[in-house]
Amino acid sequence: MNPCAWPERWRIEGALILAAAGGEPFRGAIEIAGGRIVALGPALPPAGEGVARFSRPGALVLPGFVQGHVHLCQTLLRGLAEDLPLERWLRERIWPLEAAHDPESLRASARLGLAEALLQGATTLLDMGTVRHTEVIAAEAVASGARVRIGKALMDAGDGVPAALLEEPGRALREALDLDRRWSGAAEGRIGVLLAPRFTLSVSAGLWREIAAAARERRLAVHTHASETTAENEACRRLHGGRPIEMLERWGVLAGPTILVHAVHLTAEEIELLARRPAAVVHCPGSNAKLGSGIADLAAMDRAGIPLALGSDGAACNDALSVPAEMRLAAQLQSLRQGPGLLGARRILAMATGGGARALGLEGEIGALAPGKRADLIVYDEVELAWEEEADIASRLVYASAGLRPREVYVDGRPLVLEGRLVRADLAAIRAAAARARARLLARAGWR
User: Fold this and answer.
1) Which helix (H) or strand (E) holds 80?
2) Concatenated DSSP letters of 126-161
3) What are the residue boundaries of the Amidohydrolase-related domain, all occurrences included (predicted)?
4) Confidence bin at 390 (pLDDT 50/70/90)
5) What pLDDT shows up at residue 389?
6) Does the pLDDT at position 35 exceed 80?
7) Helix (H, G, I), strand (E, B) or coil at 390
8) How far, in Å, CA of 426 to CA of 407, rounded?
9) Going edge to edge, which strands form the sheet with 147-150?
10) Helix or strand (DSSP H, E) at 20
């Protein structure tokens, strides 16, 4: 069927449906109307007049993945910052290259990153944005059809930060709030805006306090990196007088919804504090492993009741923008750290779906398949996923899906991927434009 003429009301029949990560799959049908799920179950009444029917007897249907942390501005930087620890990775490679972005290169980077994420089954993304031209990313998010939360990266201080990434605090915050006014609620509500201070070492104490006040006034969440490395924790103590979590609490940031990325090196007291605050943690195991940052204690955070999500981070420190790859690695690394089974496959799958929705404040809209929720769902070929029918579905998804792509991806009931291919764009054309933009970016950066 022509995706441009996709029916307003339709259903998938005969598929194996996993409505929520912790539930049991059933074979049945799911019906969508007006962008929302209106019915699902093993024995729905016959489809009414005007309902398009799609038979998928060999398919597995589940909620779309939530890509809990990504830097779309870094998609063009893949392979350019290899074999470095975080601090050198930022100062010697990433910050200078981000500073060389112009609207054209940022557009190409965002478009490629969104395409890759959709093809891997991410229906919702949380993007850190960048200091300049973030509205370009917002426009690409609208065009992609994905559900995206974004913020302008806030940076007004920091050792080794290029001048092009440093802004006067008042201007930086005004631009961040203007992004909220212009883009929150765009694309029928698919786009939302957060405040995105980069981390404690690149934001002054004064700006942090202003961010906390603005977040309270505008009811915006704060999205930031925290406690990624031991070196970061120590540098924050020297600069501000305390570790990142302590300082975020002191500045008033943790009083409101806060999405903390990495949180690899937390004390037991910091975990207890976060559990008492409206804070969530996004775990990025691939990035943490590549940069040698460490393995977060997910089990301790989970026991404390902290909402947990999964993210890939940027393509410059992960390479693959794949939530399934992060699920597999997260499960394996926790087994190495804690022993097998302490965080099982169902819990890891929950982090990639409902956990991500909760972290972003979207649990009422996405993260599970239920009547009234948004029709953000993905469809795998069940046979391709694994042939062992007696195996647990969550285990098959966590351990066997990393090298596979979903056949179909829907957001608000509209197809964005069909038969494994993008519906709204041509991947080859996106890649070609990205290659041209990358060459020009490297020339501007004086890359050798």
Assistant:
1) none
2) EE---SS-HHHHHHHHHHHT-EEEE-PEE-S--TT-
3) 60-414
4) low
5) 65
6) yes
7) coil
8) 16
9) 65-70, 122-127, 147-150, 191-193
10) none
Burial class (CB in 10 A: 0-12, 13-18, 19+), 161: buried
The full DSSP string for 199-262 is -TTSS-HHHHHHHHHHHHHHT--EEEEE--SHHHHHHHHHHHSS-HHHHHHHTTGGGS-EEEEE
How crowded is the C-beta side of 436, counted as CA atoms within 13 Å? 8
Assess whether pLDDT exceeds 80 at residue 388.
no
Residue 188 predicted with pLDDT over 70: yes
Report the C-alpha gap between 267 and 296 in whole angstroms.
Answer: 11
| Sign (positive or negative) of CA dihedral 329, 334, 336, 337 | positive
Query: Measuring CA to CA, which residue among 66, 92, 65, 94 is closest to residue 318?
Result: 94
One-letter amino acid at 189 equals: G
Q: Which residues, in sequence order, are CB contacts of 290 under 8 Å at separation 6+?
A: 317, 318, 319
Residue with tokens 């819990």: 347
Which pair of tokens denotes residue 159?
């050792």
Distance CA 213, CA 209 (A): 6
Rg (Cα) of the chain, in Å, rounded?
A: 21
149 strand-pairing partners: 126, 192
The Cβ-side half-sphere exposure at 231, using a 13 Å CA radius, reads: 8
Does residue 88 surpass a pLDDT of 80?
yes
What does the angle CA 286 – CA 115 – CA 136 come to, to the nearest 5 degrees? 100
Report the number of distinct structural domains present in the chain.
Answer: 1
Residue type, 161: V
- DSSP structure class, residue 374: B
For 9, 109, 153, 322, the CA distances from 141, given in Å and listed in that order, are: 25, 12, 16, 18
Closest CA to 117 of 369, 320, 355, 402: 320
CA distances from 65 to 25, 93, 183, 187, 432 (A): 17, 30, 23, 20, 27
Asked if the model's pLDDT at residue 1 lies above 50, the reply is: no
Spatial contact of 169 and 202, defined as CB atoms under 8 Å apart: no
Question: What CATH number corresponds to the domain at position 42?
Answer: 3.20.20.140
The domain in which residue 382 lies consists of 1-448
- Spatial separation of the C-alpha atoms in residues 347 and 395, rounded to whole Å: 10
pTM, whole model, 2 decimals? 0.96
Place 108 in a pLDDT band, splitting at 50, 70 and 90. Answer: very high
- The number of angstroms, rounded, from the C-alpha of 348 to the middle of its chain's C-alpha atoms is 15
